[in-house]
Amino acid sequence: MKLKQLITSVAISALFSGSVLATEVPVSEQDIAKPQRTAEPSNFIGDDGKLDVSNWLSQAYGFLPVPIMVTEPAVGYGGGLAVVFLSDSLVAETPPDISGIFSIATENGSKVNGGFYQGYWKNDSIRYEGMAVLPEINLAYYGDSTAPLFDYKLKGAFLDQTILFRVNESPLFLGASMTYFDGDNSIRGEAQGPIPSFGYQNRVLSGAVELLYDTHDNHFSPKNGYKIEASLAHFEGREADSNYNYQKAEVKHVQFWELQQWVLGLKVSADVVDGQVPFYARPFISLRGIPAMRYQGDQVVASEFEARRYLDSRWSVLGFAGAGSAADKAQDLFKETQVAGGAGFRYLIADKYGMEVGMDLARGPEETTVHIQFGSSW
Asked: How many domains does the chain have?
């Protein structure tokens, strides 16, 4: 659900990605048997004499502090800290379980605290992700207006669990997910327009079937391959003395092509809801340059293209452009299209893992935004 996407992006945008732990890195048996954590200068210098954290990451295990940076324009800039526990070295033969707690705050007064766990079981044939979060996120609701109709606080308790099973030994995973949100949302300040009739003191439980097909050549910063994610969910909610329900379908396709010194990327996504949907849970256009929750509708489609040019073995520059449309009916899609684009750079910070970091500057229909990137922006 889009609520999950927003909370996750705000809360753990800079934490280790679970899929990263499955990246294959050639190491010796001695490295696996005796992981050691040190801070010697050589651990931060690559074979080419440039800054590189591969050696440090390959030795990391146990409890690790992880700084968090938030650059989501819907809530403003912010940061925080996570304490992460790795059950083994990242280069162990079987991906280690990862768990942790985190706390963040942003400049508009939003706060998110919570914990998470990611497990890779039976030689990565089963993947489990769980997250429990207490969000207090300050947002603006626009509806169909060009100006905010009102500000509101998204507050409550959020629980998410996902389990995926690998089909044979293929890149295909099938599974299920469950989310629960006990909300105590409220309007902040004076409303400048109509207020939705429900979506405040409510409880929502969902169940979904999930599909993942991933052929990317790297889980940090892919250069080839594609990934398809799809889900079909049913939501049951209750507010005051009445019940409501709605359904949601989501699909996202991300593709990369490597052409000599260039890497081209394409993302296409679509979200559809049907039924009685709380105002905060409606799908929204997700593109660099457009704040989360800005353009919402019962049906949303978006696409973004990226071209990255490598200057040398470490540095690359890129440009990107995207477009999306949100509407309540399919026939109204693309009557209004929102366009955004920008440019950025990447630096290969961990050569062994193929991990790139960098920054993007994006311009949307209304504002310019800055995005700190760890790995792929998608």
From this structure: 1
